Amino acid sequence: MKLHFNKTGNGQPILILHGLFGSGDNWTTFARTLSTHGFEVFTVDLRNHGRSEWNEIHDYSGMASDIYELINAENLKDVIVIGHSMGGKVAMTLAVEYPSVLQKLIVADIGPKYYKPHHQQILAGLLSLDFQTIKTRGEADNLLAEKIADVGTRQFLLKNLYWKTDTELAFRFNLQVLNSQIEEVGKEIITEEPVKIPSLFIGGSESHYILKEDHEGIKKLFSNSEIIYIDNAGHWIHADQPALLLEAVLSFLGKQEA
User: Fold this and answer.
1) So what's the pLDDT on residue 257?
2) What is the total count of domains within the chain?
3) What is the pLDDT of residues 94-141, one digit of tens each?
4) Which residues of 198-211 are buried (b: 16+ CB within 10 A; e: fewer)?
5) What is the chain's mean pLDDT, rounded?
6) How far is C-alpha 249 from the geometric centre of its chain's CA atoms?
7) In this structure, what are the phi and psi dihedrals at residue 18, rounded to the nearest 5 degrees?
8) Same domain for 106 and 221?
């Protein structure tokens, strides 16, 4: 499946994979800064998100295959992948199923374990929006607020709004498929043989996605991994602490900040 992406910089390729309901655009500023350290950084829209193609199947094997196809199409070598949340599980699956294409793996605030579906309120809010009657972003926000109180979460979701026609708003993500296959997003990553690719797992200190008791499971599957935490960061580490995240990434990649 053909994926939409933007790229910036020159050098060793880094692919950044976003989380659920996101897009590559969420990482634009981080990617631009990272690219100044000798990298060609690709911010990718995963299937059913952003400007990439939609598909009725939304699982990790399929999404990893999409990334593998992109790597081959762009003739990329010694690839580094950074994946956040759902994108982190795509990155882990890529490392399991196509290890030869990766040099290093960085996973932001997600582990390989099973996560129970916990986006029900968000999905309920999104599904309640009727774009036959909603004609402004403000109206969409007001209605979404009835289901989702957090302003930051609503702003993140509403970044996906675009004018489908001159008079009709729509979401760039495939809401119906994501809703029907939300169980797939929490699926456990399983491998018979440990992944030996050098891997960095980065948790937010204020997040609950990577717990201390998860460390053993991570290191069992990713035998050449280290686990660190970014202080004063929640799940969206790249938004909460971009400078500290950049410092951690560059340190792992053997680069020094300018």
Assistant:
1) 59
2) 2
3) 999 999 999 999 999 999 999 998 899 999 999 999 999 999 999 999
4) bbbbbbbeebebbe
5) 96
6) 16
7) -80, 175
8) yes
pLDDT digits (tens, 9 = 90+) for 185-235: 999 999 989 999 999 999 999 999 999 999 999 999 999 999 999 999 999
Q: Which helix (H) or strand (E) element contains residue 217?
A: helix 215-221
Max Cα distance, the chain (Å): 53
What's 189's DSSP letter?
P
Instruction: Decide which of 161, 180, 199 is a domain's last residue.
Output: 180
Are 70 and 22 within one domain? Answer: yes
Q: Residues 6 or more apart from 212 whose CB is under 8 A from it?
A: none
Per-residue b or e along 125-137, where b marks 16 or more CB atoms closer than 10 Å to that residue's CB:
bbeebeeeebeee
What pLDDT was estimated at residue 186? 95
C-alpha torsion 137→141→144→148, nearest 10: 140
89 shares its domain with 124:
no
- Which residues are tagged catalytic? 85, 235
Task: Give the Cα separation of 238 and 164 in Å (integer).
Answer: 29
36 & 84 share domain = yes
